[in-house]
Amino acid sequence: MSDPEPDRFAHLPYRPNVGAVLFNRDGLVLVARRADLPNAEGRPGVWQLPQGGIDADEDPAAAVLRELKEEVGTDNAAILGEHPDWLSYDLPPALMGKALGGRFRGQRQRWFALRFLGEESEIRLDLDPHPEFDAWKWVKLDTLPTLEVGFKQAIYAVLAVSFAGFAGPGGA
């Protein structure tokens, strides 16, 4: 059933957020499958890039490294670049008033391109007692918008263009 008042959440703010496009040495990007939306009924699950909230007075560059450590177990990465604009998305109607503690209409994100400097064994999804992800893999940057990423597809299409110079072996 659809929400009879789709604009009733329009007054809610966007949550400040950072996102990480983490490239390996071959120029592939890490995506992780959400643990709360696992493979079910033949669906591939929902894959996304690591992202998370910015704490009060926290620098976005510091926040992206903190979020990497919290979500994928490592912050062994160097920042390569940053998308020049904040990107925003609204939650789907079914999640409005529920997701993000019901306090936000969506997220306003600062995205960073990073180079992973470590070994794959450093990527650990099991360090948090309630992990956000249950699987991860490396993919080509230009495939991001084609993955099952749900309502984040438009942002991922922007990032695929914005960070194209970092893709492929030896990217900037």
UniProtKB/TrEMBL annotation:
The keyword S-adenosyl-L-methionine does not apply. InterPro entries: NUDIX_hydrolase-like_dom_sf, NUDIX_hydrolase_CS, NUDIX_hydrolase_dom, RppH. Its EC number is 3.6.1.-. A motif (Nudix box) lies at residues 52-73. Its cofactor is Mg(2+); a divalent metal cation. Belongs to the Nudix hydrolase family. RppH subfamily. NCBIfam families: PRK00714.1-5 (NF001938). This is RNA pyrophosphohydrolase.
